[in-house]
Specification:
Blueprint: E1 15-17, E2 22-24, H1 34-40, E3 42-47, E4 50-51, E5 55-57, E6 63-64, H2 66-77, E7 81-86, H3 92-97, E8 103-109, E9 119-134, E10 149-153, H4 157-164, E11 168-172, H5 175-183, E12 189-193, H6 194-202, E13 208-211, E14 218-225, H7 230-245, H8 248-257
Helix pairs in contact: 2-7
Length: about 260
Amino acid sequence: MTKTLNILRRSVLTGAVAMMGLSVAPFAASADELAEIKERGVLSIAMSGQYPPFNFVNEQNEVVGFDPAIGTEIAKRMGLEVKIVTTAWDGIIGGLLASKYDAVVGSMSITEERDKVIDFVGPYYNTKRAIFTKAGSDITTVEQLDDAKVGVTLGETHEQWAREQGYDINTYKGLPELLLELDNGRVDAIVNDSIPVMLAMKAGQYDLAMVEDPAAEPIGAGIAIREGNPDLAAAMQEALDAMMADGTYLEIANEWVGGDIR
């Protein structure tokens, strides 16, 4: 059953979004952007391009994966072409607020902190935090991370969580680098969403073990848009709901992640 978040309308907020390291200056609310996007005929969506199989650059230098497929299908159902923008994850919300693109379709976890400065459509899939080590590692419990070097992706919610635990961390640009550093022994463990790492393990790319994390809870990934756009939010949600209902979503999920992840 499709899960739908109520799109919250807020006045302009100032302050910092702690987990993104982003200072948000006051900005004026604008008219809903759907009409402008329709006139332009193109929906511009952003992602890191470093999060396989959700979004990554293939050998033909094309951005492919679950996220661009979902974003492209949503745009198509809205009568629009799609433009995919890749950008560093730690600045992706800043780019959205600066109107460098219309939406972020990049596996962004929906959190209260983020929801203070942006709105979300979805969630369009669900995952949860997971901790991985190399197979055979002495680290088998979360408590042992206190004495370990932990790798995280810069700007992700997992970075914030690891810092809150007081862990000794190294930060990286994306999942490929994170996995490589773990495989090479430069970190003892990594913290990431469970699905992409488990898929890499299933494909035989890495010999890893998952550390049981009883405190981890499922969290939804949403499509981020600027506040003050109820028409745009409704149009995107309608397209997302329709593709979930008619089987298109499942086809995309089967192709890129091997099953339904709603």
